[in-house]
Amino acid sequence: MDKSKRFFLKGAGALLAGMSAYQATRASEHSSPASQRKYALLHDENRCIGCDACTQACREVNQVPEGVSRLDIVRTGPHGEYPNQTYHFERQSCQHCENAPCVNVCPTGAAYKDPQTGIIKVDEWKCVGCLYCIAACPYKVRFIHPVTRAADKCDFCEQTRLSKGELPACVTSCPTQALVFGDLLDTQSGVYQLVRTQPVSRDKESLGTSPKLFKIRAAKGEVIL
Ligand code: SF4
Ligand code: SF4
Ligand code: SF4
């Protein structure tokens, strides 16, 4: 939908009524505690070799145009002294914050947390492109999609993969199994067990956002041969 049409619908008033009904329907659909999940992702920087397979898979599967990205692998280094220098690779993507600033500032409800999964999502039909969420995100991972003209970011492949019972594209494309996806409420999930047994950390925890992107920090990184 182009901007003029989006604003027309907004101005017509019918959209607001529709939005309320839609939200009520969605909340009732997901009100069952039995089906509740809390999805999270873990990036083991010690396994990451910076190959960017994850970034490319995300772009293809989610049809993310060139020039913007839902996921970046940032390389730092070299660290240390020759000949024992290393590089570190850090993932930057939506953290699916429990207390999400993007959701808190969105004036239309386009940015919201799915109560069934904990995934922070964007309803492109409600987004008016005001940029409030982009300014509010402390992790700087949101962008305006050049085609939809709505805010966009990682959604854990909710539409393209999870809805078909498949793992996120970045997870399955990683050749070193550096990414682990799962449910923090499921005691059998890999993520549940890793965050309790490994020295994980999260970015900018002091802000109170309670991110659900966990990281095992690089101890050695990639050795330069
Ligand atoms: S990382 Fe940014 S876009 Fe993602 S949930 Fe948190 S505030 Fe929102
Ligand atoms: S979970 Fe999906 S949308 Fe998110 S970065 Fe990975 S491939 Fe992209
Ligand atoms: S695909 Fe795996 S190893 Fe390659 S950059 Fe992504 S997380 Fe790192």
From TrEMBL:
Gene3D superfamilies: 3.30.70.20. SUPFAM superfamilies: 4Fe-4S ferredoxins. Keywords: 4Fe-4S, Iron, Iron-sulfur, Metal-binding. The keyword Disulfide bond does not apply. Signal peptide: none annotated. Residues 39-67, 85-116, 118-147 form the 4Fe-4S ferredoxin-type domain. The keyword Secreted does not apply. Pfam families: Fer4_11. PANTHER family: PROTEIN NRFC (PTHR43177), PROTEIN NRFC HOMOLOG (PTHR43177:SF3). This is 4Fe-4S dicluster domain-containing protein. It comes from Shewanella submarina.
